[in-house]
Amino acid sequence: MNSDIQHHIYSILVENKFGVLSRVAGLFARRGFNIVSLAVSPTEDERFSRMTIVVDAASAPLEQVTKQLYKLIPVIKVMEMHPDDAVERELMLVTVKAASDARSQITELASIFEARIEDVGFESITIQVAGRPDKLDAMTDLLTPFGIVELQRTGLIALPKLARRMGRLRSVKTRPA
Amino acid sequence: MRLTGAQALIKSLEHEAVEVMFGLPGGAILPVYDPLIDSSIRHILVRHEQGAGHMAEGYAHATGRPGVAMVTSGPAATNIVTPLCDAYMDSIPIVVITGQVPYANIGTDAFQECDTVGITMPVTKHNWLVTDAQDIPRIVREAFHVATTGRPGPVLVDLPKDIANQQMDWYWPDGVDMPGYKPTTKGHPKQIKDAARLMSESRRPVIYAGGGILKARAAEALRELVELTGFPVVTTLMARGAFPDDHELCLGMPGMHGNYTAVTSMQQADLLIALGSRFDDRVTGKVDGFAPEAKIIHVDIDPAELGKVRQPDVPIVGDCRQVIEEMVKAVSANKAKHAEDGASWPSLDEWHTRLREWQRDFPLVYDQQPDGPLKPQFCIDQLRDHTPDDTIVVSGVGQHQMWTSQRWKFNHPYTWVNSGGLGTMGFAVPAAIGAKVGMPERTVWAVDGDGCFQMTAQELVTASSERIPVKIAILNNAYLGMVRQWQELFYEERYSEVYLSPDLPDYVMWAEAMGCVGIRVDSPEEVEPAIEKANSIDDRPVVIDFRTDYREKVYPMVPAGKSNDEIILDPAHDTYGER
Ligand SMILES: Cc1ncc(C[n+]2csc(CCOP(=O)(O)OP(=O)(O)O)c2C)c(N)n1
Ligand SMILES: [Mg+2]
Which CATH number do you get for residue A44? Predict the structure, then answer.
């Protein structure tokens, strides 16, 4: 994720209903809001899912995005988090070329990044790393010289930081009553 | 009670007090057409599904009740996409029911399968795919609730054929339980107070009334606010009739083809009170140059409209009627306070005088010579002057629409039905039919273009066979006139694919073939007798083919993308005073 671009993180609680992903994704496309990443998962309550969407702020005025999202009927709650106010995590799986002479360097790198070796082959290894997006970017940069075979990232998920949950959350806290 | 899904659907529509629906059957919706035979609901069989959608819209425009259309799957569903989009842009409550292939076959490219829910997602307020017959009453209840509350709009219910045949236990829900849908109707008291304060400080206020006034049934409340404040009102294309044109404070239509006074009053205002209007580009012109000195009070039931185009000084989310009523109270209280303190209320005399001077100096003009070519504006004036005051006027899209909106005197709400946001050619004939079905006691005239008429004229067969006596005035200029106007003004008179011919088709013969009375009018002296004849016919539709001057253009005009200060007046008339 390119850190020069200003991002907004939206955490959207939606009803777990048919077609809800396409309603939300369609809205972003229709209004010209660019999605950087998107993750969807069930929540503690099976009636709802949570979507974490990172958008390019330049394309998407914060207030319009929130208001337009609330117009979708399955959308229950929208929270917008500034990256400073959020606990963010992303997971990456990466397969790198690892001939025997390079292997120890790669495993050393992995241990610095608290990454795990998930699979080992004759010519390559697959590493899993989790953390903030900039950590994954750094890991990617350092692995590139070895030759990246395949790389997959989950997209960001985030929750508001607890200490600041009340005061600094710049969300529309509830649907405008 | 055990019912089939189809029976439950019809029964649910009856519970929603549906009296009439517009539609056309086919394979996937067949199960629902069977119990319809035994229902109290009147069904009007259209000749094209687009007609069903626009009829439902016309019905909703005229009555305020949701219009209902029912069609089959696949091509029928795609045929009704245009009316859905039209209703979405203009916030018209319609409920569309589509048949779908059996649930088990979805995704197999079955005969007449299309992803109706997917296709219509961007043009509906919400839509539903029914997956269990037991859900039908709940979904119908939700569909009508969503269509008619908050910012109204179109909804669609897609019903697979096997679900229509499935058995269910009948029930009727007491209400709806939709945690993600709770429109705000009551304006925030503090915001209303702030608005009232701005209103009591303004010297050059303009009320910018939009279609939301009509949706909220707030015409009376608006009138009260105007009488109290003396603020002049512009009524947008979607709000014509929301404030009476014969009121001295009514300035008429603003925007690209608005009159000089309406456009310029907004440009020079120090306060705009936007009520149920949305700063559409056809109203604002170039946004940067729009009403540069004005503070903005913006009232809308849709929070997303506030700040979408122009940041308001006082945003108020709420139902226009409720908010205006609260504004009236707040302004009255301010006035009483002023009087108590011995302070004078700011005078608007200077502003009123300026507006009257503009109205005097820059009227809408045209020139009908007794033996010259027939002017479209003359036809509209004659129609206006020889029809009842509460006539419902419906229009297509193009020059004829703009002239009608400019020249008609709308003195009652819900007498103007047109396609504003989407600008759908072909809207007029079916929408007029829908309006007449909803308001059978009223005279319904459509003013249509020759191009528009050719898009949906076949619905006059529907009107004849169902005995719906609408009247159609075609302003036949033998051109796609509005496009011709742009080519003349902005493409150096290079006319590309805009000529239609005045007599191909022969509109009189076509009308007669569809069971209507057809009348041709070539010269000014034939206009009034033709209108009187049309008015006297009440057992079938009438079509008048007015052969009008193709050179006539719509003025004033603010060229697209230009500031409203660059308004162009009709260059053929040098009768204007010094600007
Ligand atoms: C369905 C559709 N297609 C194209 C247009 C673009 N368009 C806008 S006005 C117009 C000309 C309409 O011609 P006519 O009905 O004869 O009306 P006139 O302008 O001549 O009064 C056209 C083609 C449109 N608005 N809608
Ligand atoms: Mg024409």
Answer: 3.30.70.260
